[in-house]
Amino acid sequence: MSGRVPPGDYAGTSPHWLREPADVNALVPVLWSSTARKGDDGVLHIGGLAVPDLVADVNTPAYVLDEDDFRARARAFRDGFDGYDVFYAGKAFLSTAVARWVGEEGLCLDVCSNGELSVALRAGVDPARIGYHGNNKTAMELRRAVDAGVGRIIVDSFHEIERVADVAAQLGVTQGVMIRVTAGVEAHTHEFIATAHEDQKFGFSIASGAGLEAARRVLGHDSLALRGLHSHIGSQIFDTSGWEVAGRRVLGLHAEIAEELGHVMPELDLGGGFGIAYTTQDDPADPAVLAAQITKIVTGECAALGIDVPHLSIEPGRAIVGPSMCTVYTVGTVKEVTLDAGAVRTYVSVDGGMSDNIRPALYDADYSCTLASRASDATPVLARVVGKHCESGDIVVKDEFLPGDIAPGDLIAVPATGAYGRSMASNYNHALRPPVVAVKDGQARVIVRRETEDDLLATDLG
Ligand SMILES: Cc1ncc(COP(=O)(O)O)c(C=O)c1O
């Protein structure tokens, strides 16, 4: 087409890792859930269903959740981290159906609000297998959690220690708690989602002695049972070097608490943060490989300190639900924009955007996408898929090659949107948050319905 930069001549306009695909119709398997397929007609199938048929019923945008894939990833963590407790981090995505799958696959569940707790309890999750997070839990929230019998509350401040101790004493129970500590480790990930710097809101700093003091205070309350330390070093992490440094510091404190305060904690939680593939630049490791490396780090450190290995737990969210879900959009407009260097970028506007996936705007996150409703033999063009919101930063996929004949009415699917997509979705511009449709063995089930204008207007009291 006229004005288009010849294939392969995108110098300076596309990221270094993006290559023009040999076949623009083909899926890159690592980005997609395990049942995703394309036939010669280019139509994307997930869970045995053709995506165009699926969205003909529920409209777009829609999140499509591959149940078999979700369950398989949950099992891969359960089996790979054999001997650990695996807590699925519900903040990544939670619904009653997903909470049930988590329980059925033998995982525990993390929540971080009364809302998430309500979903878990409605799903019938055993409260003893729930961990409760958050840096500012109110007395009311804590009362609800303690009253429900939540197995462990991860305390995050001196104020909270007193608050949860009071609540447990009033209810006449002994509440299990973990102490969230910061190990001063900067995980290899984006600045805004690395959560183990000392200069951050979460946890008690080990280096400053706050972690030891927190343990002293917890042990001073008969209504609290100190089960262990908790350390979450960041998100979208691909190698275990961060856990190695954090593990050494956290186990150092674990040993110090035993020696100084005479309390041997039975447990240790190493948090979540396991990375997934959003684009071809990401190369995630198998959970079993990560497990072997992390276990070696912990057992080696415990041996060096002369202490028993505590019962370990982890909290993956993204690595379970992220690749299990994709988002399907309809193309509304296509526009060519000439860049300074004379190159042309094709802007493809879809019917969703930052209200259903805030991660590109919030973290500069990269995604990929594919034409989901047909095959094309048109020459690929460098495209930017954008949303329909009133922000120029409303980007869905910053850089991707799409067929040059991409046109209004085409369906585009973005893989790996399961984590922090629907869970961070907003009503910006009064958008209606999309449904989540679970697919399995040729059957589709809406597990979260699309919002309606009545839902929006219900909170507007005039
Ligand atoms: C304490 C804690 N645990 C687990 C997670 C889950 O992280 P991910 O979804 O990257 O595995 C988070 C994410 O922010 C977290 O803060």
Structure, explained:
With 462 residues, the chain is an alpha/beta fold. 28% of the residues lie in helices and 23% in strands. It folds into 2 domains: 29-65 and 324-456, Lyase, Ornithine Decarboxylase, Chain A, domain 1; 81-321, Alpha-Beta Barrel (TIM Barrel). Strands 4, 14, 15, 16, 17, 18, 19, 20 and 21 form a 9-stranded mixed β-sheet that branches. Strands 5-6-7-8-9-11-12-13 form an 8-stranded parallel barrel, surrounded by 6 helices. Helix 7 packs across helix 8 and helix 8 (241-261) runs parallel beside helix 9. The radius of gyration is 24 Å and the shape is globular. Bound molecules: pyridoxal-5'-phosphate. Pyridoxal-5'-phosphate is lined by residues 89, 91-92, 133, 195, 232, 235, 271-274, 315-319, 419.
CATH class of the largest domain: Alpha Beta
Largest β sheet strand count, sense and barrel closure: 9 strands, mixed
Category from helices, strands and their pairing: alpha/beta
Number of helices: 12
Q: What percent of residues are in strands?
A: 15-25%
Give the bound compounds. Answer: pyridoxal-5'-phosphate
By CATH, the superfamily of the largest domain comes out as: Alanine racemase
Low-pLDDT residue spans = 1-8, 190-196
What is the gyration radius calculated from CA atoms? 24 Å
